[in-house]
Amino acid sequence: MKSRDAQVSESPIALFSDRERSAQEPKSGTESEYGYLDRSGRPEAGQVRAFLTRWLDQYPAEHRIELAGRLKSGNDREFRSGNFELVLFACARSMGYDVEVHPALTNGSTKRPDFLLTRGDEPGFYLEAVVASELSGDKQAAQKLVNSVLQAIDTLPSANFFLGIIVSGTPTKAPSTKALRRNLAAWLASLDPDAASRAADVSAEDLPRWSWSADGLTIHFRAIPKKPEARHPGQGTIGMHSGAFWGNNRTPMRDAVRDKGTKFGKLDRPLLVAVNVDSMALDAIDEMEALFGQEEYVETIGMPDSGRMRRIPNGIWQGPQGPVLTRLSGVWIFHELNAWNLASRTSTLYLHPVARHRLPEHLMQLSHAEVDAATGKVRRVQGVSISDLLGLAVGWPGQ
Hints:
Layout: H1 4-9, H2 33-39, H3 43-58, H4 61-71, H5 76-94, E1 98-101, E2 115-118, E3 125-133, H6 137-154, E4 161-169, H7 177-189, H8 193-202, E5 209-214, E6 217-225, E7 238-242, H9 250-261, E8 271-278, H10 284-292, E9 295-298, E10 308-311, E11 318-319, E12 322-323, E13 328-335, E14 347-351, E15 368-371, E16 378-381, H11 386-390
Parallel strand pairs: 3-8, 4-7, 8-13, 14-15
Antiparallel strand pairs: 1-2, 2-3, 4-6, 5-6, 9-10, 11-12, 13-14, 15-16
Helix pairs in contact: 4-5, 9-10
């Protein structure tokens, strides 16, 4: 007989509140991803809510409450990791796999991978998810501080001007925004929008400028005059925004995957680590360097024609003595996947050239890359997209 808890967990879980939604404005800088998704009345938000709800309802019942709690926690890191696991579950089911959540291992380890995927008589494989960010923990915390300042600026009423801003520096603590808003409002009130428009017709460099600095953060402002018919306070004072915390794409991905690849010890089945890299600039070079080592140019002194490229043996799969971490059969790399962009994101499944256990051929329907044993070159094969796998239309969730 099933326990009361088991009976309750098999019922659908209300991931989002049941209410009328009319909000059409974009997400604010200090709002959680779940909070915005739950309150937004935009049709696109409705599509995202429907997708998450549909797949959560199909998630194994005994683990549904825990995943829903992470998604609803208000913590963006928990939301992103939970969303990524739910998307992987959806992809696995769409490929015809049965999915066991947190399976027990047979090697004596008390640690449990995220999933065991099986299909028919195949032995199956373990799938472990991880989100890797180009920003360190300190930089993520600093970015939150910056977002709070940007939110204070964006909500400042401005009838005559939008603001172009350039952000630089790293805040050491939460800057006080009260004085910033007061001084910024006084500066805008001192400007003539018609005079600024005439100056802008000559050169954008002649637009009024003002700068503010506090606690390690500097923001440079440009006042961009609104058209006469649009001169009233509206949603969003920031018109243009530049400035970011730049990080390293390769190292966070390499370290996150290596940590997961060594977590469970020797396994009786293939292990696939899926990594969602939170980076705007990730490319195939970063992926290859994380897996097989950084590229460097070497040249023999006195022999200018001897220059060549080689790899430093510091990748996940390549060490000084040759191939390593053969228990990690593959790495499935996603680029900045989130709840809103599933139809437009790409992914590549990389295969270990000498894996202890090879991943099943059924996975080769995905876009994948592997080393050609004869040439030593990486061969890439275009496969089904995430949108095709999940049955999402072009332009989803907007269409």
